[in-house]
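Bumping with the actual sequence this time:
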Amino acid sequence: MGRVWTIAGTLNPVPALDRLDLVAEPVAAALRSLADAARLAVSEIDPGLADTAEFCAHYGSPLEASANCVIVAGKRGDAVRYAACVVLATTRADVNGVVRRRLDARRASFAPMDDAVRLTGMEYGGITPVGLPADWPVLLSPEVAAAPELVIGSGIRGSKLLVPGEVLAKLPGAEVVPDLARQAG
């Protein structure tokens, strides 16, 4: 019997390695080589309910146990640096302060949707920190890294990954960044 996920609501989580067909190809490749992959679960969902608020309301998973991954582009002159920011769904990433400074950028903003999809190989609305380009920093809020259980994207809109925060903190390029998240409001 697998792990019991207290945040699953009405989801039916199964070991992620048993259902690599439910994740984007870059995510599947990362899971195949991830030491802690056995600690992750995946659950199929209605792709029309992938957005966090709708997902939580429909499946009964707590909003405070969901984490969003956003791709940020930092620019200095002609150079563009990308990073993933992972924060709880109840917060927002401090893109113009903390992230901009971490990327040593003059300007930082959310990467355009087409760029984020093309560069990650994932679907918009399903982008996840698992399987991102190796040279990208994965910036985690301390709350994400400390969470015992989280629901995150799977690289596609038709499923979600369930993962302990400490596993995300061990991903390639992962950094726990104090003050990364600000309360949404």
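The tokens above came from a reply further down the thread. The chain has a mean pLDDT of 95.
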